[in-house]
Structure formats: structure tokens, C-alpha cells
Amino acid sequence: MTKQRRFVEPALLGSVFVIATSGLVYELVSGTLASYVLGDSVTQFSLVIGLYLFAMGLGSYLSQFLEGRLIDRFVEIELGVALVGGLSAPLLFRTYAVQGAFRPLLYGLVVITGTLVGLEIPLLLRLLKFSLDMKELVARVLGLDYVGALVASLLFPTLLLPHLGIHQTSLLFGFLNAAVAFATTFLFPIERERLVRLRVECVLVLMLLGSGFFVVTRFVDRFEAQYFGAPIVYSMQSPYQRVVVTQSPRQTRLFLNGQLQFSSDDEYRYHEVLVHPAVAALGREPRRALVLGGGDGLAVRELLRYPSIEHIDLVDLDPAVTDTFRSLPLAKALNLGSLDDPRVTVRNMDAYKFLEEPGTAVDLALVDFPDPGNYAVGKLYTDTFYRLLRERVGVRGVVVVQATSPQYARESYWCVVTTMEAAGFVTAPFHAYVPSFGEWGFILAGAEGTAPPTALRIDPSQLKYLDAAVLPSLFSFPRDLGRVEAPVNRLNDQALVATYTREWAVWTR
Amino acid sequence: MQRRAFLSAVAGGWVASSVLPDRRPVHGRIMGASHSVGHALRGNDARPAALNPADIDAALPGREIAAPAPFPDRTDVLIVGGGASGLSAAWRLAALGVESVVCELEPFVGGTSTYGTAGASAHPWGAHYLAAPNPEARAALRLLREMGVVTGWDAAGRPMFDGRHLCHAPEERLFYAGEWWQGLVPVDALTADEREEMRRFRSIADEWTTRIGSDGRPAFDIPVRLSSKDPDVLALDRRSFAEWLTANRFTSPFVRWYVRYAVLDDYGGEPETISAWAGLHYFAARKLKSQELLGSHFLVWPEGNGRLIRELCERSQANVYTNALVTSLTEERGSVRATVLNAYTGERRTIEARAAVLAIPAFVASKITRIGGAPWPKRTASPWVVANLHTGWPANPDLPWDSVLFDAKGLGYVHAQHQQTVVTEQPVVTYYRAYGDADVAGARQSLLAKPWIALAEEIIADLMPAHPHIRDEVERMDIMVWGHAMPRPEPGFLGSDPFAGSPLISERIAWAHVDQAGIALFEEAQDRGVRAAEAVAPLVGKDPGETWL
Ligand SMILES: Cc1cc2nc3c(=O)[nH]c(=O)nc-3n(C[C@H](O)[C@H](O)[C@H](O)COP(=O)(O)OP(=O)(O)OC[C@H]3O[C@@H](n4cnc5c(N)ncnc54)[C@H](O)[C@@H]3O)c2cc1C
């Protein structure tokens, strides 16, 4: 008997440590998730911490009403913490992805975990009071509790989050909690029939969390999250590409096939530059516009700043992209709901097909395709494509094309310029610095007489980057970005794809 | 046995394949050039049983079969054969305002340039590309101009093309030494000797491309009748291409494979069985060089040259009668009379015309006309197998048009949806295999005797090295056996008086078929068809005016 005692005490104190650590981990997981998804990390963390502490207090208070079979209660509460805390991250993510009630679930989970953890320490004190004297007991238990918290707060940002990711961290600690519960059933004398039931429960929970630990890597890929540098809040595989939206406290980012499309903290530079110089070059009020690619609705948002706009056709092949940017709250906050504007028609079709079909002439065409990294996208950068485009804008229209980076892929950029000229456009190449991308290249084009614009057609107070002083500077190229000789990109050889792949390989190696 | 029930018997292939253990059943059937009906010509009077309409329907899924209209009694010009040659004649005659009727024995038009539409995409059943034609192939260029594929002519008189129809990059890849390489020559995998030999071969081919014969004509041209008669050039026709290659020290395995692949693809013959003249013609007859053709110079469509067939039909508004087998053609008192068997109903009918164009191979034409002294060249026809594989492959933006396997039995496969601007899942690919050795009769017999399952297994085995899971990836495989696919330009095929002669084989009958040229190319078929039409037009009182040739 004494022998067993001697063994029980350190074991129970060990479980105090685990409980304390995991309690804080759940708190951190919730806080991190909330700030990823809802932004404003200060508010989110204070709310989560406040609620959690309050719930712990609630739990401690409620513990007085627990009577009899304390060991059973303790095991069951442990299992409850394991389940709720362990599954909290995957559950919250899933809810966010399907646009469920994220906030109520978040706060609900915080309160439940807090309450359960709050119940545990008083229960433990009561379990241990027979073996230790009060003074010693309180000192040891509370001491361990705070040490556990310190360990958790050190491990979480340094080891857990970067290496396991948020899902596996939360599942791992759930698993540890359940293991403590399981171990407890061996340490205390429990009646046989209850013992079997409790152990079965423990094993079930352990299995659930354990398998979750391995499965979760599949459904939200940890490596992928590492690759994207931030947690993925939305991802889907369409027939054409993999669409991924990531969210970190600072920024929302969109990736198509792993290629960054925009980052919320500097996309305004990109989209202002894409849209406003072209409108300025038009020399008249823009009425009808065409956006090819750009299913994120951000270019459309800029266009809609002009009251004269009557109609915009947005042609993007992939309904997965346009649907995401119509419904995901995070995305709508960025494009200001531009895709639902009555003046905008979204067409999910091949841009080639769209241009081949007869249609009314447009004042402006904004071409915003992914970079020409494979032969399918490369087709949208050929002389044939630009000929069709030229027919659509007629002699009075203006075109602007995103054309990769003249810094990282200088020959590729000028290859697009050469190709557009071969298709009969007069071009005015320009570039801008977008921190997420580096120095980025665009091409303004139109009929004879197309030239860099000298004045904006929009009040710069509506913009964040462009103004009258910046505008002309975009059109001058420093020597190391300047024009180089490049071939015409034709459908039947697609010189651009090879050039682009070669040039970017140097930077991504 | 009057006719082998190709169409139905072979559906048994499916049953067999599903019974065999451990085999995922790939479905499919043999389609087919109706050898059975053609064989009715052997014993001229033997009346074949009517084709079962259900079989016909299944023959080319997706291609509509018009209800058999009653054949007309008379017309101005009767065209026998609805392949590229016959339809080109109809196209030319329509432009002259001459009424014509086309009789085609198969339930579908197009001959060896026909196509299918079943499944995810239209696909070729025969000819699959047209190389950018030489400026001399004027009929072909005219058709392309009408279609908008040729957009005009540049200052140097060269045709310019709409880039949408030129084969999009990437054009081809080769499975060599266990991996795919872009292009047909895996330069980095070759030995220095092989590379050097390849370079030497190319430079000799380039020399021949620009060589002008003693009569001022290019050594090789398309149409072939415009090639030089310089005896030094013609001398090449006296030996096999293999002999020429060996004599010129082209002996490395890669170069021999490369050359063999090329000539099998165009002529259905191996270097051992074709003339050296034809072999060099393949590498030296295409002269069109321009900036826009620095990439691929192949014009391709999902249905292959079936696109050209469709355009010819549309443009000529041809009166085409399918299931119409002409069993005899005679000329008497200023008119021609044809006996036509309705393969659908078994009925015979006589059509009277003022002139006729025979747009069928020499071995059939000689049988149905019996015109004494007609200059039928002796042609050996290579057998081919064409299969359309409906795959379950995922979308791959970088899948090329043509995928070739080094040292395989077949010529690889082409991807029907390649020219689409959107990447497609589950591509339909068309597999080709030519039987190029000397024993064509043996090859033909064994092919025609094989059930679907045997042919399908051979194709699967042939693709297996590059696609280990092909058996599980193919949902459906239909197979066409072409017993007499195309003339093979054997040594001596040019004859003693090459490129000579009128298309007229008698007063009122002209002959137009790739057999005349001895080289099976679309440009030749068009050239022959248009020439025959212009030769018969005066016989029905129409001045052809300026020639289209
Ligand atoms: C597998 C294959 C691949 C090829 N690939 C290419 C290619 O990529 N590019 C290219 O240019 N060429 C290619 N060819 C060559 C092709 O044969 C020619 O381009 C062209 O289609 C030949 O046309 P034709 O009209 O001269 O002959 P055919 O196609 O032989 O047409 C003759 C027609 O006459 C019909 N017929 C025969 N006898 C009778 C009768 N008694 N009564 C009524 N009708 C009759 C036949 O059914 C047939 O439809 C290929 C051929 C094959 C078989």
C-alpha cells in the first residue's frame, strides 16, 4: 500500500503538469486561430484569455458540487478536455471553411475547455489531500500548474506551431490529456465494472485523437501550410487548379497552383497600377470594360470607382475562383463585393472562346492571367491571342496586360511586349514595385498613337499608391530592367514558356 | 464464308475480356473499312447479304448515318469514292456549276481521312495532320484559304497561317531510356556519335531540300508530279532507302530508328521496303520556311484531316450516297453507266452519267472498269491499325500532341483535344501502327483474323513501358483495321515514265487517287481530284477556265 502511494503521488503531480500545459495550449490555439481568421489579434487574444480565465473560475466554483466517485469524475473530465480541446482546431477550421458560425463555436469551445480545466485542479487537490498535508499540496500543485503554463507558452511558438502546425498541436495535447485519464485508471482502485467502462472510453478517445493526428495532415496539409507560410483557411481543387486562401494575422493571400496571386497588404499597388493608367490612357470616360482572368474581383473593384462604367464582363475560366470571391467573407471584404455589382457579369469560360465569339467592342480590356508557367496558360500570351484581343477593343480601345516581372524574368517580360507588337499593338510598357512580388511588369497597349498617360482620371484621394507624381515614373525603366531582344511567342512553339521557366528557376532554386 | 462479320463478331471481344480473370474489362470493338462489302467485287456477281443496319450504326459511333436515299438514275459527273480525292473533285466541279454524285461504299465519307465523334472529343480514324503545304500545292492552299486557315500571302509569296490551327506547343515527346523527352530527338541522352550522325543526316536532308535538278525543278516536291526528272535524282528510286542509309554510313541505332519511324508514319513502309527516292522525299520535299513556322508546321484538328473532309463536303454541297458500292463502270456511246449496289438493302441500280471520276485505289478501279490498256500502276498497300483510346488520364497542360515510344511496335499516339485552349481531363488519344515489312498479305490476313481482344492486348502491351497502368486507365478502346491503308512507295514505284500522263483513262473516265502519286498525302489527293475534275468538265460542256493547280 505505501509502495503504491509512493508511486501515485508523482504520477498525479505529473498529470497536473500535463493538464496545465495542455490547458494553456488550447488557449493559445484558440487565440491564434481567432486572430488568423478574424484579424485584430490584440482583441482576439484578450477575448480568448479573458473568457478562458473566467471559465476556469467557473469550473473551480462548480467543482464543489461534485460528490462521490471523484476518480471516475476526474477521468471523465480529463476525457472531455481531451476531446473538446484536442478537436478544437480542426473543428474551427472546418467551420470557417464551410462558412459556418465561427464565432459562437470559438467562444463556446473556449468556455467549455476553460470550465473543464477549471474543474480539474480542485478535483486533483481533493484526490491528493489524503496523502499530502495541505500546505505542501497547494504549493506543489499550484507551482506545477504555473510551470506547465510557462512550458506551454515557450513551446507553442517555437516548436509546436512551426513544426506540427495548429491542428496537430491541438490533437497532440488532446491525446496527452486522454493518456493521463487512461493512466489514472491504473493508479486508483476502481470497481471492476466501472473500470472496464472507463478504460473503454479512454481507449476510444485515444484512438479518435490518434487517428485524427495522422488524418489531419491530409485534409489540411501541414507541409502545405508550411509552404504557404500561413494557415490555409480555404482550399479546393477545381478541374483547372488548386485554389488556396491563407490567412495570417497581417494578410490574406490567394494562391493558384501554389503561385501567389495577391497578398492583401499590398494588392492595392498591383490593382491600382493595372487599372488606372489604362483608364488615363483611354482619354475618355470608360464605359464598357472587359477583365480577362482576375476572378478575385480586385481589378473590378478598381474599375467600379469610375461612375461612368456601365458594364464589365469578367471572364475567368474557373468557377471555383469566382465563387470563392463572391462568397468567402474574407474575400468579399477585399473586393468590396465587386463581383455582385449589377454592372458586372461573371462568365466562367475560356478567354479564347470568349474572344472568338462575336461581342460588342469594349473601351478597356484588362488581362490578368497567371504567369506563363505551363503550355496551357502560355497560349494566353501568344500573338494569336493578342490579335483576337485587338479585334475586340477596336482602334479606340486600350488594353493592359500583366506580364510577369521584368526583374526576375526580364526576357519573358519583353517577349510579351514583342509578341503584342507583332500582333499589331502599339505598346507602352511600365512597371511598379509590389513588395509581395518584387518589381512587376505591365504593358499598356492600343492602336497607333498609344502613349504613356500624363494625368490620372481619378482623384488620388481615392487611391493609396498612385498619384500624379508616381504615374510618369512607372513608364521609365532603369537600365537593368530595360528592353532586351526576345522572340514572338507563337502557339506553335511557345518560346515564352521555356524562357519563363528558365528565368524563374534561377530565383526559386 | 461470304463476309466476315467484323462488326458484330468482334463485340465478342468485350465478352472475352470480361471473362478473363484479373483483367479490368476495357470495352471496345473493331470498326471498319467494310472489307466484306469490298470483297463482293471479287466474284463480281455474287450478291452479298445486305449489311445489318445495326452493325453500320455501330461502325462509327457518333457519325450519323443518313437513311439510304434511293440512288438517282442519272447525273452529269459520277464520282466513285468519297475519300479526299473524290470529294476534292466534287468541290472543284461544284465551283464550276457542274452537277455531280458521289458514291461511297462505306457508311461514312472520308476514306482514309475519316474521323469519329463518339466520346469526349472528335478524333481521327486515319489521316491526322496536314503539313503546311508547299506553295505549289495550290489546291490544298485554296481550300485552306477558304477555311480561313491560310490568312493570306506574305511579300515573298509564302502562305501565312492562322496560328490556332498550327500544332500548339508542345508538339511531341519521345519515351526513351525510361523517361519522356521533349521533342523526338533526346539530344542529351544520345552518344556523341549518334548526335554527330543526326547532324550529318539533317545537313544532307537540307541539301536535298534546296537542290534543283537539271530540268530546273526542285529535286523533290509536293505534289510529286512537280519533282525533277533529273536522272541523277530518279536513280534513287532504284534502291531501297535502307541501302541508301547504309551506303551513306547512317548506321547508329538511334538514327536508324528515327528514320524508320518517320517513313513508317508517312508511307507505312520500313526503310527496307521503300524506295530511297521516297525516303528522301519525306525529309526534303517540304520547302515552306518562314518565321511563323519555326515552331510546328503541322496543321492539326481534333478529328485530324476529317476536318478537311467535312469542309470539302460542306463547300461542295456534294450529293454523297453512302453504302453505295460501284461494282462496274462502262463507257458507251458518249456516256458512262455504273452499276451500284446498295450495301444497306442489297439492291442494285444503274446510274448513267456523262462522265465519271474514279476516286478509288488502283486495285479496285482495275476490277470494276476492265478498260484495256489502262495504265494501272502496281501498288503494294500497307496495312494499318488505328485505335482510339478513351482514357481516364487527369488534365495535363503539358501533354503534347504526339507521344512516341522509342523502339515500340506502333508509332505512338496523338492527342485529339490538343488544340483546345482549355486543358481537358480524360483525353482521347489515337494510336497508330503501320505494318511495314515486305509480307503485306500475311500481315493483312493475320490482322483481319484477330478478334478485338487480341488487337487490344497488343496495343496495351505496346504502350505499357511508358504507361504501366494503361489497362486501368483506358475506359474504351475502339480499333480500326485498315487492310489496304495506303500505297507503299516501293523501290521502282516511280516507273519508267514518272509524273507523266493525263488523268483520263478513257474518253469519259478520269482517275484520281493517291495511288497515282504512289505517296499518300492529302495534298496529292486534292491535286488528283481537282485535276480529274478539270479534265472531265469540258466533257459536260463546262470550260474549267483558269486551273486551280
Ligand atoms: C492510318 C492512316 C494515316 C494517314 N495519315 C495521314 C496524314 O497524317 N496526313 C496525310 O496527308 N495523309 C495521311 N494518310 C493518307 C491518306 O490516305 C490520304 O491523305 C488521303 O486521305 C487519301 O484519299 P483518297 O481519296 O485518295 O483515297 P481513299 O481514302 O482510299 O478513298 C477512297 C474511297 O473510295 C471508296 N471506295 C473504294 N472502292 C469503292 C467502290 N467500288 N465503290 C464506291 N466507293 C469505293 C473507299 O471506301 C474510300 O472512301 C493516312 C492514311 C492512313 C490509312
Report on the structure:
The complex is a heterodimer of chains A (509) and B (549). Helices cover 58% and strands 13% of the residues of chain A. Chain A folds into 3 domains: 3-228, MFS general substrate transporter like domains (Growth Hormone, Chain: A, Up-down Bundle), CATH 1.20.1250; 232-261, no CATH class; 266-508, Rossmann fold (3-Layer(aba) Sandwich). In chain A, strand 1 (232-237) and strand 2 (242-247) form a beta hairpin. Chain A is an alpha/beta fold and 509 residues long. In chain A, the strands form 2 sheets. Chain A has a 7-stranded mixed beta sheet with strand order 7-6-5-8-9-11-10, sandwiched between helices. Chain A has a 4-stranded antiparallel beta sheet with strand order 1-2-3-4. The mean pLDDT of chain A is 88. The longest helix of chain A has 54 residues, at 134-187. With 549 residues, chain B is an alpha/beta fold. Chain B contains 18 helices and 21 strands. Chain B has an 8-stranded mixed beta sheet. In chain B, strands 2, 3, 12, 13, 14, 15 and 21 form a 7-stranded mixed beta sheet that branches. In chain B, strand 14 and strand 15 (348-358) form a beta hairpin. In chain B, helix 5 (84-96) crosses helix 18 (522-536). Chain B is globular, with a radius of gyration of 23 Å. The N and C termini of chain B lie far apart (46 Å). The chains are: A alpha/beta (509), B alpha/beta (549).
